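Fold it.
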Amino acid sequence: MEYKKIQYRTFNKLFTITPNHFQSKEGYEPVEMFETYGEEVDYAWEMSKQNRCWTILDCDGKLYLNAGYHYVNRLGYIITDQPFDKDYELRWDT
């Protein structure tokens, strides 16, 4: 699969991250990442059917955010308000 590589600021212009309503607590910053187990992973799977799920991946010590639901090397999931229409890849330099 060929991914369109984008930078973090481009991602922020195109998409709004949905806060994790499973972990939200009044008075605290909203949590953005959804976990890889329990009801949070079930929710991520459902959002993947709407092209709104992104997977945080650790590949050889580098962090990536790839459009879609991935299982291998996953650290967690990000859900966006807007669906994606391409296979995007964002890389954080660590």
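The longest strand covers residues 53-59.
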